[in-house]
Amino acid sequence: MTPVLGWTKIVRQSDYDRATVAQALDVIERNVNLQAQLIDDLLDLSLITSGKLVLHKEVVDANEIIKAALQTVQRMAEVRKIRLQTQLAEPLPLLEADQVRLQQVMWNLLINAIKFTEPGGAVYVSSLVNNGNIEIVVKDTGLCMAQEFLPFIFNRFWQADSSISRRHTGLGWGCRLLNLWWRCTAERSR
Fold it and tell me: Domain residue spans in the chain?
């Protein structure tokens, strides 16, 4: 909320040119959207852990969900100078899933991949059918997590780097929430 309040005060204090006001509005909008997403994630976390999350399953095309998620994160990737590359099997069998939750899984996978990839790197997304199962793979050229940390990635509020001076922000619930959403929408993941 601090950036929202700060930019609001700055814009109110004086007359600014259109470019400064536009920048302020961009920052405000981005931060309001982030705050809304945090609140939604917390509510989801609460619903999932209490067993009260209601799934709205329907027949969906996994590739369409992937394409929509890629479109959503495209600007973030462009700003960070990261290439998004896809190799989607066409056609995939349709599946029965909660489209909103599956979309959240894809967004979080892509956002994490972009967040931990250096500028000039790439995020690769592929879909395929393997032994009758749909597989969606997200790979990136970013930082690899040390093997000793892997058993902890789905713990609540856990981060590999918990130091005050860490490079990447976040609360450490992204992978936990991602795992819980995935368990709600699919039988297995890896």
Answer: 1-54
